[in-house]
């Protein structure tokens, strides 16, 4: 699929690096580029002369698609489609992102979120088709698509249905998160922009390459996370166990942020971000090899997104230190100190400083507490002792004739549950006496 890239900026020189990367990630071959520095034209996004130049380049190259890095309104899409050779499709960056999401969606939840985002994108275009049809203008297939009077209501009905199903999935996932916490797991989430190296870092933090031993706790999640130099390699969530003795830690990788996403797209993937919002600790992963202004802008966007709903502490991880020298790293740390006052610097690719990051995770997660329980000897006592061994760090177990004393350290939630179960044993023992 050959494509022409088009981008307009209000002032300055248009940067098409990201949109080219997105196009490549979606499977397009970029065969040309048109850019312009001027205020947006309400009818065409580009100026009329530049739009005519775009049509000529499409004709010369035989491109089948024009990809705008700008957000196109329904009427701009229609007008551009009228100017281009027949059969040429016009899409904007958000349609392109949805194409990539659709290609990468593996789980039912991810597929639903992609479908929801596509419908939210299509709804105003369906409304525009209705308006054009009432004026006896018939948008062609490569403009806005054929007019269907019932389509607008169909979209609204589908949006409602998908939101209901996503809500049910999220309720199930929240129950699983709580079960993991009750079982003594600390939940750590990786957040950050796409291509920052989150999946590679997850592989470094993982105690092993799969989560089979935890399958019963999170069988809804993928067992592996790809590490590739691609945008949106991770679309769903991937969870692995990290080795931080004596803790049991589950680390979850999530879909990456990307700049300038519209509200409807972020909202469609809200439930994926709940893995971040409801973690005990968030690792905000940053590609430190990027330009300092770009890093700063991305950190601001991430913080705005996370602080809106997130209550867990955030640790900034400056990744890819293998790509910068010591002086550049020190300079960037100083420049970012207000947004990342105490970052951890790592190279996930080479494994540099990963042990220091594990120590930092341990330090930032909720403190464990010490407990000493005296349990009466009943038929169910050994079951509780076994459960404490599975969900806590046991220091000592002393067996007497009539009771068992267990000394251990654990998360507060585990201690509370152990006390409750110990109370039930005492009640049972008293009733049997």
Automatic annotation (TrEMBL):
SUPFAM superfamilies: P-loop containing nucleoside triphosphate hydrolases. Its main location: cytoplasm. Its cofactor is Mg(2+). It is found in: Cytoplasm. It comes from the Archaea. One of its GO terms (molecular function) is ribosome binding. InterPro entries: G_HFLX_dom, GTP-bd, GTP-bd_M, GTPase_HflX, GTPase_HflX_N, GTPase_HflX_N_sf, P-loop_NTPase. Keywords: Coiled coil, Cytoplasm, GTP-binding, Magnesium, Metal-binding, Nucleotide-binding. Pfam families: GTP-bdg_M, GTP-bdg_N, MMR_HSR1. The keyword GTP-binding applies. GTP binds at residues 192-199, 253-256, 319-322, 347-349. GO terms for cellular component: cytoplasm. Residues 186-369 form the Hflx-type G domain. Residues 102-182 form a coiled coil. Mg(2+) binds at residues 199, 234. Belongs to the TRAFAC class OBG-HflX-like GTPase superfamily. HflX GTPase family. GTPase that associates with the 50S ribosomal subunit and may have a role during protein synthesis or ribosome biogenesis. Monomer. Associates with the 50S ribosomal subunit. This is GTPase HflX.
